[in-house]
Amino acid sequence: MTSTDPTPSRVLVLNSGSSSVKYQLLDMADSARLAVGLVERIGEETSRLVHTPLTGGDKRELTGPIADHAAALKAVSEELAKDGLGLDSPELAAIGHRVVHGGLKFSAPTVITEEVMAEIERLVPVAPLHNPANITGIRTAQSLRPDLPQVAVFDTAFHTTMPEHAARYAIDVETADAHRIRRYGFHGTSHAYVSRETAKLLGKDPSEVNVIVLHLGNGASASAVRGGVCVDTSMGLTPLEGLVMGTRSGDLDPAVIFHLERVAGMSTDEIDTLLNKKSGLVGLCGDNDMREIRRRIDEGDQRAALAFDIYIHRLKKYIGAYYAVLGKVDAVAFTAGVGENAAPVREAAVLGLEELGLAVDGELNAVRSDAPRLISPEYARVAVAVVPTDEELEIATQTYALVRSGA
Ligand code: AMP
């Protein structure tokens, strides 16, 4: 496609949280990013918009009250317009929305209709924090450009291929079905993108490789991907299950919750906050930033060292579990903030797994780069890779493909 091609090729990606909106504008003719930004503390006096044009010009920062999502998006539109990238442009092909919970119904990106909105709404009880914010973001964008296709890209979609034996909890079936209780998994856009990019790195088609993807950010999840298809993932009904995360506990005996209620006298909301916001690395040692934890370990801090060991132990258990689920593994891919940057985490996670064909080359592991790369020695049977994730590009790609297909 050339610049004279009349087909609109820009996609705005919106990731709406309860008090924030992250956005990126991409030109899908060449997958180039045109602008990125963030509005935070929406609804407060100290709202902040940080806008970075990538077509020239400096980063801009606006502070002051931004009342709601509508005002936030209007401010974003004004910033984009200053760079000649206004949202009223005929070059805008679609708006792609990250939607956290798509339940079982949405296994692919979907053009948003009123029916789709009703279903996202119906899923609020299983995603009480995320889906309402996503709905607000969509409504706001619709009011700004009612003529434009709006596409929902679901965090859960990639995991809808999980077989029933991986997706069901071993609880009473009627109760589970009545309340839609099952394992849905999250970070799906990242797991999809990274598993595909890993296959590319190996010079193979995704259908030919089995990959364990370790998405280690502040939230963290693992997935087992067989031939491009997700067969298991570590997050469940909500993002609380699985790995030790920045502030979430991950797996624990459910009886801990009864104990906290009956013995510690905590309310359901207090326990929710404890497990989602005050647990994981921050609960174990007071820090959730892996850089800070490594710095403390280097200074001999025992609490930080124990937190790191618990984090790695859980990670190793999932690598082993997904190795067994897949039977044969071609690659283990590390991604997201910790996975892409923390060499000690990658080294520790595969340490002692040589019998499984897993090893890390110290020199390759120490290289800092934004490019997908192998960090395993040549002799290793299983490739260990660092594959930077790009959820916005994946959302834009899926959105654009859907719009172009005329679906
Ligand atoms: P994410 O949620 O993917 O943005 O990841 C955020 C997390 O990545 C932070 O909380 C840090 O723990 C971790 N992180 C980011 N940069 C680095 C780094 N250079 N070294 C180690 N950990 C990092």
Describe this structure in words.
This protein is of the alpha/beta class. It folds into 2 domains: 10-154, ATPase, nucleotide binding domain (Nucleotidyltransferase, domain 5); 202-391, Nucleotidyltransferase, domain 5, CATH 3.30.420. Helices cover 38% and strands 19% of the residues. The protein has 15 helices and 14 strands. The chain has helices at 69-82, 114-122, 130-144, 164-167, 173-178, 188-201, 255-262, 268-277, 280-285, 290-298, 302-326, 336-341, 343-350, 362-366, 391-405; strands at residues 10-16, 21-27, 32-40, 48-53, 60-63, 92-99, 110-111, 150-154, 210-216, 220-226, 229-233, 331-335, 373-374, 383-386. The protein has an 8-stranded mixed beta sheet with strand order 5-4-3-2-1-6-8-7, sandwiched between helices. Strands 11-10-9-12-14-13 form a 6-stranded mixed beta sheet, sandwiched between helices. Strand 13 and strand 14 form a beta hairpin. Helix 1 (69-82) packs across helix 3 (130-144) and helix 10 (290-298) packs across helix 11 (302-326). The mean pLDDT is 95. Adenosine monophosphate (AMP) binds at residues 217-218, 246, 288-291, 336-338, 341-342. Pathway: Metabolic intermediate biosynthesis; acetyl-CoA biosynthesis; acetyl-CoA from acetate: step 1/2. Homodimer. Catalyzes the formation of acetyl phosphate from acetate and ATP. Can also catalyze the reverse reaction. Keywords: ATP-binding, Cytoplasm, Kinase, Magnesium, Metal-binding, Nucleotide-binding, Transferase. Mg(2+) binds at residues 15, 391.
